[in-house]
Amino acid sequence: MPAQGNGVRPPIFERVRCALRGADHALAPALPLGEALHPVTLAAVLVLAVNDWALKPRLGPSAVTGKLSDLAGLVFAPVVLSAALGVALHLAARMGTRIDPSLSRRRLMVCTLATGAVFAAVKLDPRAAELLARLLSHLGRHAEIMLDRTDLLCLPALAVAVWIGRDELRRVPLGRPAAIHRLGRPAGPALADVRWAGAPAERITALAIAIDRWEVTTVESFLVA
Question: What is the pTM of this model?
Fold first, then answer.
């Protein structure tokens, strides 16, 4: 949630995220990739990088390094995929398409389920594993995927990705008020995802009223960090 109303300075992670994605305004949304810049997402990316580029070359492939890669990947892959889709939709909206690019519960769950399905497929089907390894090699990263049914025990890590997405939604997602204004849709249904994420009800109600009344100055006060 924005900090202006409660007098608390935004934490360093929030200031970094705002610097990377841009400042949000009532009529001009910032880039919708906050979930990919969440501190937990960045920590998972760091763990994967250290594990794959430092631990595996020194210690060699093992059950520990293998599971660590799987856990880190399952944490950040869904939210990075969601952010990539958000940026693509943002560009489409800038070109005139009437579409809301901000994070939603539906997009979060679809990306999470898709990640889980692909992970399970490459751990169980040699053809799927070979296809993914070939795709990664075309992207400049040599990969060798080992079939191991026990890796499916890492799937609960997807719950962390869902938590990251909910945390991003809970803050009253960047871009959502701007998209509502731009598309001319009622605020109530559009903020249902924020309610699902557990944002304070009184803040959601006040924001919805301000959006429906086109009180741009009031909406700005909710967005300023």
Answer: 0.88
